[in-house]
Amino acid sequence: MIITVNPATEEPIAEYQTMTIGEIEEILQASRRDALSWKKVSLEDRSTLMRGLAELMRQQKERHAALITLEMGKPLAQAVAEVVKSAWVCDYYADHAAEFLMQEESLLDGGVRGLVTFEPIGLVLGIMPWNFPFWQVFRFAAPTIMAGNGIIVKHAPSVTGSAIAIEELFREAGFPEHLYRTVHIDLEDVDRFTGFMIDHPAIQGVSLTGSTAAGRAVAAKAGRAIKRSVLELGGSDPYLVLDDADIPKAVEICAAARLLNGGQSCISAKRFIVHTSVIKEFERLLLRRIHASVMGDPFDPTVDIGPMARLDLRDQLHAQVAGSVAQGARLLCGGQIPERKGFFYPPTLLTGVQKGMAAYDEETFGPVAVIIEAQDDDDAIRISNDTPYGLGSAVFSRNIDRAILVADQLEVGNCFLNSSVKSDPRLPFGGVKESGYGRELSRYGICEFVNIKSFSV
Fold first, then answer.
1. Which residues are CB-contacts of 90 (< 8 A; sequence separation ≥ 6)?
2. Annotated catalytic residue, options 167, 266, 362, 434
3. Catalytic residue among 232, 363, 373, 440
C-alpha cells in the first residue's frame, strides 16, 4: 500500500494499492501491443495528439498544479509554471519531431546512395523522481512517444496522484489506452520489480532521473540485459562569481537558483565559488536576500519556500549542515529545524566551507546555500571540478570572453553565463561523471531511444 502525505501538514492525502508482478506483466504486454501499432502512426497524427495533450495541460493547469503542491510542497505558482513548461515541451516535439527524425541521404562510392533512418525501438521504461512530478516525466515522454515508442513509468511513490493524473491526461488527449502506463510500486519492492521490467523482453530501454546510487543500480541492470539507458543523476552545481562580476545581479540570480523548488533540484545552485576580493560583498547581499525570503504554506501566494518533500530528506540535509558547522563552517542564517508541523527547513547560508565538510563534498538537496572562497580563476576552476558530479554550472563576469574561457574548463554538461542553469527543450540536457550519461531534450533527446538504421542503396 502506498500512502501519500502532505509535507506541509504531515497529514495523509490518499492510499493507493501497489501492483503485483502479474499485474505489471499484463500492463507490459498491453503496452507492447499499443507500441507496435503506434510506430505505424504518421508523425503528423502523432503531432496532432501531442498538441492536444499540451492544450489539455494548459486548460487544467490550476488543478494539476494544486496536486503537485499538495503532494510535494512546492509553492503553487512554481507548480503552475511546471505544468505550463510541460505543455511547452509537448508542443516543441510536436513541431520539430519530423525535422529531427528526417531520413538522411548521402552519396557513397560508385553512385551508391547511403540512407540513415531513425526508427522507434519499442517500449521504454521511465523511472521518475518526485521533485518535478510533471516536468521530469514530460521531458522524457514527449520525445520518446513522438519518436514512435511506448512508455511505462515508475514514478516516485510520494507523488502517485500526479503519476495517475499524467496517465489520465494521455488517455483524455486520445492516445492509445496502453501507450503510456504507470506502474505503482512500493519502496521495498522497487529493486526487484524494476529488475523484472528491465529484464522483460517488452522493454527495450530505460531512462532514470534520480540519485547516483539509483543510477548505478539501474545501469547495472540495463547493462546485464544489454538495454540502452539514459541517466540524469545528482549534481553539485558550482556557480563561479569572478572578481569583475556584477555582484548585486549575481546575488539575485544565485539566490533564486538556490531557493527555487526549495533547493530540491539536480540543477539547483549548490556551491557559490566566489573570488576573495568580492566575497564579503557577496555574503552580505546574499544574506539580506535570503532573509527576505518567506517560508510557509505553499498554497499562500506570498510564500517563496514551502516544506521539503519528505521527513528523511530534511533530516539528511540538517545532518549535513550540522556536520559542516561542527567542522568549522560559519552559519550565517538558518540551520535549525523549526518547531512546527510539516517538513520545513529554513533557508540556510554557510560560508567558510572547505574540503572535507559535507557541504563541500556532498550534494545538498534543499535550501542551503554554500559559499566557498577562491583566490583566482584557476582556483575557482579547480574547486568547481573537485566533485564527483558534473551536471550544471554558471559563471558570472562582465567580461564574456573571460567567462567563456573559464566555462570551457568546467567538467559539466551545461554551463550558463550570467544566468541560472535551466533545462530548455531547445538545448541538450545531461551530465558527465557521476551526474550520468546520455542526453534529454533537443534533437539529441529524441535520438536516445531510436534505432539509427543505415541503408546502402
1. 50, 51, 53, 54, 57, 138, 142
2. 266
3. 232
Residue in the block written with cell 510500486:
185
123, 35 contact by CB (below 8 A): yes
**Pairing relationship of beta strands 414-417 and 392-396 according to DSSP bridges:** parallel
Cell, residue 249: 545581479
What's the pTM? 0.97
**Torsion sign over Cα 372, 373, 377, 381:** negative
Q: What is the DSSP letter of 420?
A: -
Report d(CA 396, CA 239) in Å as an integer.
Answer: 8
> Which residues on neighbouring strands pair with residue 454, listed in sequence order?
116
State the Cα–Cα distance between residues 276 and 299, nearest whole angstrom: 40
3-state secondary structure of 285: helix
CA distance linking residue 37 with residue 148, whole number of Å: 9
For residue 279, list its beta bridge partners.
none
The H-or-E segment that residue 199 falls in is helix 190-199
Sign, Cα dihedral of 210, 212, 216, 217: negative
Listed residue (225, 245, 198, 256) closest to 397, CA to CA: 245
CA distance 436 to 216: 9
How big is the chain, counted in residues?
A: 457
Give SS3 for 436: strand
333 is catalytic: no
Helix (H, G, I), strand (E, B) or coil at 260: helix
Active site residue 266: yes
Tens digit of each residue's pLDDT, the chain (457 residues): 999 999 999 999 999 999 999 999 999 999 999 999 999 999 999 999 999 999 999 999 999 999 999 999 999 999 999 999 999 999 999 999 999 999 999 999 888 999 999 999 999 999 999 999 999 999 999 999 999 999 999 999 999 999 999 999 999 999 999 999 999 998 888 999 999 999 999 999 999 999 999 999 999 999 999 999 999 999 999 999 999 999 999 999 999 999 999 999 999 999 999 999 999 999 999 999 999 999 999 999 999 999 999 999 999 999 999 999 999 999 999 999 999 999 999 999 999 999 999 999 999 999 999 999 999 999 999 999 999 999 999 999 999 999 999 999 999 999 999 999 999 999 999 999 999 999 999 999 999 999 999 999 9
